[in-house]
Specification:
- This protein is of the alpha/beta class and 507 residues long.
- Helix content is 47%, strand content 15%.
- It is globular, with a radius of gyration of 32 Å.
- The relative contact order is 0.11.
Length: 507
């Protein structure tokens, strides 16, 4: 029996894929925006036909989330994203100012290495493939090992459709033999212009070490502040729908609730009426014992599981109507596992006296585990909203909307993205909701609008003016004697007498 080293095979495959992508890049350089647009539409239409199949396959392979919500995400990316992109230009002349005689030209970065997550293996892959082709880039994927079959199936569908529409071979591909060594070889390849890591935190250090421009879309929990002027029922419904969506695995989903003390009781009642279960102290300990064992890391087998199953596994029961488990906390502590990002339908509930203290709490949460990713505020007070927008160390702030749907651009006008940058220092180069604009550089073109002689003449006049002023200043300083007001008056009097003498001589 012949032994095959999987790691070496993966590394070799990565190198071949990058070589092919390099050849494809040369061909893509000649594609105009309109041609790229036709390919994008064809790819999206093909993927849309398999949106349900891929959602079910994702849940079966990863055992994360639920297929119904994944189906919704797949359809959203396949249908809405192309519509959003339709009128946008990223290749060739993307803007022109005839009056100012300036022009901007979009230039693809080249080859992108993309790491996709196990939590959103289909919608993320489709989205990144579409924005890469839209911006004229080649892209090579490294699927997560836990979702390799599903991501591979999604990319096969896209690759077939792209080839039919005229995309060159090698412009869209993926690592079939998935290993860490192969992924590292991919992102470290000299031809890679940009690395995108979406929800694969175990690869961030390798991505940074590769020395490439690096976009990181983290997996975190977001704080949500319910201010006293908020529409409480609406705010609670938004938070519950968001936190329970796909059983809590969407990166921007709310995990921390900060409630104004004046409305905290009312808000708690609304949460309970909408399927939230506030755990007792003993139940909290049981759940943490399940989610975060002694080593402090979350059990990956409990990611994306419904609240009822989490409770059952922890050793306590909840009604069938329960959608989210809630822990009431007073303080943020590194030793408190509930203050860490949990990819499941669990909320942490804090109460603060007013918006000022709530502001401080949100800043503390953002600095602790949210890494400046996303913040939500529910309020009707525009001044409070503005203060939060000005002061919070966060990449995106959402107002009166669910975090999951707002961050994805479903309920806001933000770009419909599956990769959401944060402001974490040293991890990634952008806080944007990543779009094709992040996959190009802009070549600025400026026409000559004035002659160099005109500028030089102006400069000469300015220099002569400065020289004359200097001479006059020197003359004045020389003429004026040192001393007080009396000596100055005497000198002026002598000068006037001399002037009168000259005038008399002229006559």
């Amino acid at each position: 029996m012949r032994f095959v080293d999987k790691d070496l095979l993966s590394v070799q495959e990565a190198r071949i894929l990058m070589e092919n992508a390099g050849e494809a890049r040369k061909v893509l350089a000649g594609f105009e925006q309109e041609r790229l647009d036709r390919i994008v539409v064809h790819m999206a239409q093909a993927a849309a036909k398999h949106a349900r199949e891929l959602a079910v396959m994702s849940c079966e392979e990863t055992e994360y989330g639920n297929w119904q919500d994944k189906y919704r995400k797949n359809r959203y990316i396949c249908e809405y994203l192309p519509e959003k992109l339709k009128t946008m230009r990223f290749v060739g002349i993307i803007s022109e100012d005839r009056e100012e005689k300036m022009m901007k030209v979009g230039v693809p970065l080249g080859i992108i290495a993309a790491l996709t997550p196990s939590t959103n293996p289909v919608s993320t892959a489709i989205y990144q493939a579409l924005i890469a082709v839209k911006s004229g880039n080649a892209i090579v994927f490294a699927p997560h090992e836990r979702a390799a079959k599903t991501t591979g199936r999604a990319l096969d569908i896209l690759m077939e459709a792209a080839a039919e529409a005229g995309l060159p071979d090698g412009a869209l591909s993926y690592l079939g033999t998935v290993t860490r060594q192969g992924t590292e070889a991919l992102i470290g390849h000299p031809a890679v212009a940009l690395v995108i890591d979406t929800g694969v935190p175990e690869m961030t250090e390798a991505a940074k070490a590769a020395g490439k421009p690096f976009i990181y879309g983290g997996t975190v929990g977001s704080p949500a502040f319910i201010e006293r002027t908020a529409d409480i029922p609406k705010a609670v419904k938004a938070i519950m729908a968001s936190r329970n969506f796909d059983y809590g695995i969407v990166p921007a989903a709310e995990q921390y609730i900060v409630a104004d003390s004046r409305i905290a009781g009312e808000a708690k009642g609304e949460f309970e009426r909408n399927g939230a279960y506030f755990m007792s102290g003993d139940e909290e300990k049981q759940l943490i014992g399940l989610l975060c064992p002694e080593n402090g890391s979350q059990d990956p087998e409990l990611v994306g599981k419904p609240a009822r199953e989490l409770a059952r596994r922890a050793g306590f029961s909840v009604p069938d109507t329960v959608k989210v488990l809630v822990s009431e906390q007073k303080y943020i502590s590194d030793r408190n596992p509930y203050a860490r990002a949990l990819l499941c339908p669990v909320l942490v509930y804090y109460i603060e006296n007013d918006w000022v203290h709530a502001c401080e709490k949100c800043i503390e949460l953002l600095a602790n585990e949210s890494h400046g990713h996303t913040l939500v505020i529910h309020s009707k007070d525009e001044e409070v909203i503005r203060q939060f927008a000005l002061k919070k160390p966060v990449a995106r702030m959402l107002v009166n909307t669910p975090a999951v749907f707002g961050s994805m651009g479903v309920t806001t006008n933000l770009f419909p993205a599956m990769t959401l940058g944060s402001i974490t220092a040293g991890v990634g180069i952008t806080s944007d909701s990543v779009s094709p604009m992040n996959l190009i550089y802009v070549r600025n073109v400026g026409y000559g609008v004035r002659e160099i002689e005109d500028r030089m003449a102006g400069d000469a006049e300015e220099r002569n003016g400065r020289a004359d002023a200097a001479v006059l200043s020197t003359t004045w300083q020389t003429a004026v004697p040192k001393g007080g007001d009396d000596s100055l008056d005497d000198e002026l009097e002598r000068a006037m007498k001399k002037l009168l003498e000259w005038m008399a001589e002229e006559e």
